[in-house]
Structure formats: C-alpha cells, structure tokens
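ingest -> fold -> write
write: protein_1
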Amino acid sequence: MSKVFKVSLFLFYFLSATFVQANVSPFITNISPFSPMTVSSGNNYRIIFYTYDYESASMWNYLYYNTSKSMSGAQPITNLYNLNGTNDFYWSTKNISHGKYYIAGVVADSSNAMRTNYSMAQLTITNTNKAAGSGNTRPVISNISPLSPVTVYSGNTYPVYYEAYDPESTSMNVLLYINTTKSMSGAQIITNSLAFNGTNLALWSTKDFSHGKYYIAGVITDSSNASRTNYSMALLTLTNTNHALLPPARPQWLSVYSAWTNRIDLYWQNLPNETSFTLFRNTIKNSNTAGRVTGRAMNVTNYSDIDLSKNTKYYYWLKAYNGAGSSPFSYTASNKTLGSGNTEPIITNISPFSPVTVYSGNNYSITFNVYDAEAPVVWTYLYYNTSKSLTGAQFITNLYMLTNGSHTFIWPTKDVGSGKYYFACYVIDSSNTMVTNYSRALVNVTNTNRPVSLPLTPPVISNLSPLTPVSIYSGQSYNITYYAFSYVYPDVIWVDLYYNTVKSLSGAVLIQSNHLSTNNWATGCSWSTLNRAPGAYFIIGVATDFSNARSTNYSTAQVTILRPSSTNGDVTPPKPPANLRLTPDSKKLTLTWNRSTEPDVANYYIYRKAPADADYKIIQITSADSYIDVNVANGTVYYYKVRAVDSSGNPSSFSDPVYGMPVKVNGKVVLSDNLIKPKDPQELYINIMPMDSKVIEVDIYIYKINMKLVKKIHLTGLNSVQNLYRWDLRNANNVRVPTGAYFIYVKGVNFEVRKRIYIVR
C-alpha cells in the first residue's frame, strides 16, 4: 500500500472521531491510478477512490475521464451512491479510444455541497487486440494490524484489521496466525474466516495464549487456491493476566442516516467487552442535558429513532457499559429529518452497461439502483423492448417497497424470443411521482438450442459461531453469527438454526428459522439459554434455497451454559415483577410493570416470543420499569414476560405473560406479515382486521410474480375484531400452486393492501 494511502487511512480514523460540523463540503481523495498505468483496451480497470462527509453518511459520486486535469470536455463514466469510506468501480474500456487519461471524481452531498479531484497519474489505454485477461492472479493481504507496537492484556479480545483484494474473486479465505518472528515456522492459528475485497475485521481472543511479543501473520487464498502471506507491521505484546476488567472504550459511530420526515437510523461499531449500550439524544449540541432514548442489549448496534419532528436536527451520543463501569460519551453524531417535500425518485445504473449475450433459456441478472430522499420506492416495474421506449414493451415483473440502494432481479429468458433488447424500468414513490430509465446497452438473447446452464448448486452456510469456545450463564443470551450465500437464488435463502450436544441434526432443537432477502452476513440471532440445562452445545445451521437445495454446517466450537453462582453468599431470588401491561401502537409495543420493592434488584430481563420463534428470547436488559419494542411488524402477535435479577445474579421467576399486536391502519384492513417456509407448506392465513365496527366486504386477489391471476376470493360479513381467511395454496382450478413468488392484493372500498410472499418447498 502506498504512503499516500496510509496517510489517507490515518486521516480517515482521525476525522471519523471529530465532531459533526455544519455545512462542510464533502471531499474525494486517493483516486487511482496513483502511478502511471497501462490497460489494454477492452479490459476492465478498477477505479479506487475515498470519500467522506462530516454531515452525511452517504453521497453521490460522479466519475469522468479526460486527457487533462480539467472538467472541460470530460466524458462521464458512471454515477454511484456511496457511503463514507473507500469505494471502487470497474470501468470497461471496451469503447474508449487509445490515449492517456486522467480520472476525475465529483462528490455531492445532501446539501448540494460539491468537491472535485483527479487521479494522481495517467491511465494509458492501448492495444485493442489484446484479449481481456482472466488468469490466476494471486490475492493480496496487506495492512495487517497492529501498524505500530501495541500492548494487550491477556484474556482480552484484540481486533485484527487487514486489507484483502483479488481482481478475480469477490470473497477469499483468510487464516490468521501469531508467531514471535515474521515466519510461518511454528506459527499458531488464531482464526479462520471469510474475507471480502476491502477492509476486514477478525476478533482474536487472547485468553489461552502465553505472555510474549508476537507478529500476526495472514494467509489469504482465493477460489483458484492461489495464495499469499503477509505480516503485521509491528509487534503485539500480551501481558499481565491478572489485569482487572477495563471499562469499554469510547463507542464509534458507523452511520447516522435519515431519509424520512420522522425517523433517523443509527448504526455504531460493536465493542469486544461491552454488555450494553445506552443512547442519548438532544436538539442542541450538549451531551450534559441530553435525554436517554433507549438502552440496547449486548451486541445490539443499531436503533431506529422514530416519531421525530420533521425538518429538525437531532444530536446523539452513546455510552457502553460492562462490569467495570461505563465508557466516555461517544463523539457527537447528528442528522436532520426531512421536510415535507415531493422529491422525485431516482433510478440509475440499469444493467447491462455494455452489450451482453445470453443464451435463450438461461437466466440474466438485471441490476439497478433506486433512491428516494423521502421514503422507500413504493413500486418498481421492469420491462424489455427492442428500443428505448415503453411503447410495445413486454412486462417482466413488479417489485414492491424497495429500499434505497442496489437491487437484482433474475430474468428467465425461457419464453423470450431471440433478439436484441433494452431493459426499461420505472419507479413510483409514495407521493405517486414516477420516473423512467433504460439500460445503457443491449442484451442479445440467442441460440435457443443451447442447453440451460443453471446448476442446482446448494447454498453455502459458513463461519457459524462460536469459532472458539465460549461460556455464558443460564438465562443469558448468545448472539449467533453466520454467513449464508446462494449461487443460484440469492434472494431466497432460508436458514434454520439448531442446538445439540453433538455435531448432528439427530435430536437437535430448533432455535430460529430466518428468511434472508440477499446473500449476507446474518447477525443478531439471539439464542436465549432460558431453561436450557447446563452443559456444552454445538450450533447447527441448515441453509435452503429456492430450488430446495440445502447444506448443513456446525459451529467449530461449543457454547457452554453455566449455572449462575453468587459471589456474596446470597442465593435467594427476588420476587417476580407484578402487573405486566402491554400497550399496542403502529410498529411498536410498550411494556410497563410495577417496580420491585426489594432493594437489591439490579435489572429486569425482557423476553419475547414471535410466531416464528420456538421459545422466548431475551431482547433487552434494563433497570427501568418500562420498555418500548420497536423491532416488531404490524399485524403480528408477540408474547412477552419479564423477570427481575438482583445484584448477586439471582433471577426471579417470570411474570405472567402478556401478548399483543402492533397495528397499522391502511384504509380499513391490516394484512398479516406471512411468509411460507420451506417445510412443505399446506396453507396460508390472511388476516383482515377492520378498524371500525362497520361490516365490510373485500376481494382478495392472488397473483403470480408476472401478475397472472391465480385465484380471486370475495369475502362478506367481516367482523370488527379479526378475520382469518385460510388459503389452501390451490388455484381457481383446485390445483396446488408451484414454488415461486406471489402477490396478495386485498381490495375494498377506499382501501387496498399488497403483500409479496414466497412459496418454497
């Protein structure tokens, strides 16, 4: 890594710790190439650049090329919606003339403040006859921490950061080792993890390692088994096993994001030794008068602050806690809710960017970006046509409630005739503003006689925690992490999590069934050890995709559940909380209870059970006598109970359970949030709930993803409480519907509700 880039990394860590400033222009730096480079015409060149804005978590970036460091006559390459930090884009030079060019980057934030910068050196495009290279390039691992000498107390966790890059792979395997010298001879393994292009993090528990001075070695291997080894720049010293637990370090913000008039989403970095976080808020930049917004349980690193005033700037601070005390306040973060505008949505980067050929019968992945400053895009419609026009265009699909960002849809060309087509895409936001855009290049569908090449490759589930042995006390929760990936159906992966005393599914107990909408790291599956017998357990993960292909994986180490013990001789549990009450509202449920009269009660543990949960799970630890649960979905019933825990760690018995349903009024009905799981489904209940005492009637339409009507149902005489219609998954001809995606559309007088579901067998 160049000296310039190291300095930029230092500036990034320094600037990320400063106070949020007002009306400061964003900046864009480190635009590659850093030294003169030659690329054969037709090959792709990876443009790397770094952006940062004090006020915004994300901004627009525009890339251009020109023969000089000037915007006069510059040609556009792409526009990207990016987060703060290092970004990249692969630029196809296929239709670019030979010559020497500079790359220009223009960054603009939400306040329209702009900044321009240029690559440090020229890029020479030459030799059109040279074929694009697809060799066996070795991956790169660099900047392995520590970058300067550091001391860690034995038993604490040390975060190992490193940079990974491979032009051929999107993911690589990294083994981390420690040794007293920069050598692999005699090195001890620390961890085995999956790495992606860019900055990666691995947490090393030093509990079982001897005192001494060590280098960290990283061995990176890509999908072709090409590998490379590198070492940390400085020594890490392990010392003093008797050192007492330290309070957590100052929490660091990752993002404070607002795209609504009444809500701000907050994300922060997890800390290795915290047991909880507390969030504070103020309308002025003063942490001393800030009010407590909420407490968050261990490893919970996000919060959606709702019911805010529009067009108002809010300031936020975090504190982290453990048994040794609290951290300092985080540095100030802030953002402003939107005003009540009518900004039109944006749709860009519709693939393909350059001409591409697809054999008829194969699938093509349509990618595109959507963005709306006021709300998620409500409806997105995809078409194909022989020209850039909606006249005569053929419908592909419609997608509902897309979030801002990049999206992918798999287009099956099975019934599409040979020819050259453009993709058309138009979006509608919540204010019914519509925008249309088209793919930049043609997709050529050809050769219907070529066989379909869609292998039924099973999905991948890996890095199932714990990676090293871990112990927790009975009644606490353990956060399970894993990585799930499907080569064929990235938008439909089901992950079932189990626990067992052996590495086997025989006799395993289900923890949670989780639907992933994209290939992703999945975090935050909280496994409650309530009523689990003390002992050692393995975590088991089963991933199932749209084709019902499945794979199984096991945690590499055990979770040991310990029986709580008192340190002062007190083994008497407190009385349970009394008079637990629940108040429902839209997208939230409020719990209140009578505070315990016993003086040594330290905290209250809140447990919740959703319909998909096999048992109650701990969701919050608080010293207050109330809690607002905002991680709920309207139309779904949730069950709660609370127990008190005293300062000696003795838990009470549980309160009487309560249950309730958050309700959102949409006209006069609420459609329950149902997904059909891959367990040979037999039926789906559609929950219709009038919001007044009038008797109403509705029509229920069930469509396939291509909007072909499957079945229509007419219901009358609905009561004012709830009405469950049981659909037996059969069409109008009484035939079971096949696996696939469907829309449920409920329509009555002056109201309508839509819901997208998956049927997976």
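write: protein_2
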Amino acid sequence: MRVCPYTIYDTICVGSQYNTRLQTLTLDADTAVNDTVFDAIVYVDEELHRKIHTDSLYIYYLSVWQRTDTTLQDSIELGQSYTFKGKKFTPEEPGIIPLYDTLQNIHKCDSFIVVELKVFEVIELRKTVDAAVDSTLCVGANFTIEAIDPELSRTFEVFNDTTVTDTLRDVRQLKDSILHTLTYIDSVTTYNLHVWASTDITLQDSIKLGESYVFSDEDLTPTESGLYTYNDTVPNIHGCDSITTLELTVIEEVFAEVYDTVCLSGVYTAGSQMLTITQDTIVRDTIIDARPFTDSITTYNILVWHNELDAEIEWGNAFCGTPYNGADEVLGALREAIEADDLFEKDTTLSLLWKDANGEYVPYTGAEMSPEAEEIDLRAEVSNACTTVQFDHTLSIQKPDYELSDEFADMPAVSKYSDWLLMIDLDSLNKVYGLYPEPDSVRWFHITGTDPDIDADELVGTGYYYTDDRHLVGSYYAIITLPEETDACGGSWRTRIVVRTSDSAPMLAPNAVRQGEPMWLYHLHASGEVHIFSANGVCARVLHYEADASDLNGIMRITTDALPAGVYMLHINNGVDRAAMPFIIRE
C-alpha cells in the first residue's frame, strides 16, 4: 500500500458551507483541511500476482471572503409613501422603521443593506406679507400682477383710476427638516393705478370717387363709393396713444343727358326744379344720395317747340277703290312740309281721318272703312305736344267694278254646260274692261267639302279654260286678277260658281257665296215655291216664284242677307221642275 497526496485551493463566503471528500464544513476564517481517502485506487500487479492498495490524501487550503454590510438613513413625512425593494408602502405612525435587503458583492457573497426610514410629522406655519404699489398707465393698457409662480400671474385691461388688492396664496414655502416645520407665506399687494386718458378725435369728410385724400401722410384713393374708416395713432404728452379716426365718405357721381322739348312759355320740371321755358335752355340738376353714396347729376337740354304751321299740302287726285295710295301721298306731303318749316318740328304726329256715315271723323285704317260713295271727306292732322293743325279735303274715289251682270250671258266666266269644259268669256271681259287678262291671271277652283273658308277650296288649274279627261262633277269658280292700270282700277274678283247640269235643268249659281251676296236660280219653267233648309233640316225660308211666259231663262234672284253662314239645301218642286241643290254661305 502506498499514499497519493492531492492539494486543493478554493474560496468560500463567510458562514457558508463547503463539502470536501469526506466532510461538510462551515468556516468563518481562512482554514487548511486534510482529508484521507483509503483504498482510493486498487489495481493488480500481474508479475507479483497481487492487488496493490493506494490511499489518497487531499489537503484543502480554503480562503474565506467576508461580507460587506451597509446601513442607510432616509426620512419621509407622515402620510407620504415610500418604495423599497419595488414595493410601495405608506406608514401610518411616526417613528423609525428598519428596512433590510440582501445583495451580492463582487465575490458573489451576500451583503446586507439596512435602511433606517424615519417617519416624522410636519408642523405647518403661515405668515402674511403686505405691500403697496403705485403705478400710472394709459387708458386701455394691460396691467400684469406677477407672482413667484408664473401660473398664478394675471393680466387685465385698465380704463379708469382704480385700486386693486391681490392676494397670492402660498407664494413661498419654507421647509425646516430639522424642526420639522413648513412655513407658508401669503402675499397681499394693493395696487393703486392711475390712468392717463387718451385724447381721441373723429374727423368726417367726403370726396368724389376717383379723387385722393391725404391722411397721416398717406394718399388715399378708394376705388368704390361708400363709407371708409381710417385710424392714426399719435402719443400724447403722457406717452399714451391718441387715436384720430377719419370717416371718409366717397361719393360716386352718375351723369345723365336728357334731351326734351317744351311748348313756348311752357312749364318744365327738370329734376327738382320747375322752369318756365321761353327759349332753348340747358339746366343741370343734382340729386344728393340718389342711392347710397351716389349723386345723380342730370343735364337737361330743353328745346322750345313753336306753335305754328304754315305749309301747303299737295293733295292727290282720284284713287282707285280705296284712298290707301291717297293716304300715303297725303302723309308724305305733310312730312315734307313739316321738315321744310322751321316753326313746327320735333316729334310730330301725323294722322289721317275720314268722315263716316254718322258725320264723325274717325281714323282711317283701310279699305274696309271706305264708304260706298264716289267721294270721301278726309282730314289730315299734324300734332305735337303744343298744338294740332287740321287740313280738310274731299278726295275722289274711283271704285273697281266688282259687280257681276244680272244677265247670265254677260258673265266674263261661263260654262259651256258640257261635262268637260269651263272657260272665260274673253270677248265680254274686253268689252267691259278694255283688256284681255293674262292666262295665268285666271285661276280655277273646285269647292271641296263644306268648309266656309275659300282657302280650303282646291286650285285645279290656270288659264282661259279648264278641262280634263273626266266629267266635271261639282261646283267650280274662277278668280280673275286685273292689273291696276286698267280703267277698273285693278283688283281681283270671283266669277259665279257653275254647277254641272244640262241646258234645261234648274241651276243654282253661284252655290257658294259670302253673306249678303245674291244667288240666282236658272231655268225655272213653272210658278211655285222654293224652300231653303238648314243643315239640321229646319226650313229657313220659303220663296215664291211667278213664271213669266216671256222670260225664257226663268231666272230667280235669291238674297242671303237674312241667312247666317252655314250649309243649306235648296228644294224646288213646282210640278214641272224637281231638284235639291246644296249651297254654302260664308262669313
């Protein structure tokens, strides 16, 4: 057996345990420890044929690290909270409270920390410091009461002499930790404020739009009318601002020109003025504030009308049918006379009158007012605002011959009573009017339906005659237009309407007339009655015809004055003739 020694060096914290091979140690100081392990190693020697036993000797040299404890002191007021080791607590009684905590030092050994927390009550004391401040300032200026704490300061405007008492609570806090006292100091300050008043001035003035105005060394030129306010600030002897206010009214002038006329020595109102005018005059009238900030300036150019007319009127001679042309010529002559006369001018009214059937002069406006006479009494009037001058004249009227002959054979338009031909009697036209009309001045119409308007009839052709390859069934008429240079004074007229019939059968012509125009019944062979029925079958008239053996044509004239416009049926039954023929009366 033999012994194997081992040496071990190690460290340990004071008071902690250390384990060797064979024992557990608690050390307070550095120590050397021996520890023997018997038969630690056993092996076999083959040559000697035996087991070899070896003991192990362990020698431990242990160094002990001492701990480093620390004591701290702290204090709080009663009622305050304290945080220790991450936890907050609030002591309920005054005194000293020890607080412990364990930490590791640099040797990884525990160190103790002791906090001696002192909890004490604070005794409060309060004092007041009074002060007085005199100050002057300008009216409307800001005055600030400043406190040690800026949040307690305040600013206000001052307009009159005033005294302000200001108390600032707790402006200072004096804390004595040894005596455990907290002293509060209040500040009571009285401010005696004297205000210097400003000397404000207000000026009022006006200019015209476009003009400039100098105020406070500045040229003011407003671009629109209205009331403008400008301010200028200048310090007075006390150094306070004195405000000068300018109220500037800008007036726009609106100009107008009026040209007017007035009778000699007449009274004329020019805006707000009433004038008696004896000569051409120019007057200027101004209306202040015609609308807000606007003056209306009107210049009146007044011309004098004279009240006389000395002129010769050239009247025309005879006129065809209606004095239309005569009216134009008369008015034209009047206009020329007025323009040539210096005593009657400007805005003249011309009118033409005629004497009606009641002997009254009424305005003449057209042919429908022409009397059934060969002469017409005309009156021309020339008027202005001052006077009216009249010129009377009797005008000869040549009326065109629109009447048709009572004799059927003398009609300018005739029918050959065939089924295919209607034609104009040119020889009769030339005999009566001294001319042959142009072919296209003869228009043929066919009555269609019962519409009383001629415009509803069908234009079937033009020329001296009308025919086609079919039988002409129905009622036809021609309108012939004559030139104005004829003795008949021109114009248009309508032929009698021709109904297809035979030479011997009764015939009504025309069978479409205007109210008041006559119709004729042809080829009546015996005496008897003729009945006229309205469209609803009511008998409107009964006519009697006495046959005359010497009257070969058997013509009966029918008047339409008493029949209103409409569609009618004419019935003949005299024992010899029997027929029913429709006809139309237009308005």
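write: annotation protein_2
DSSP finds two helices and 45 strands in the chain.
Residues 401-411 have pLDDT under 50 and may be disordered.
pipeline exit 0
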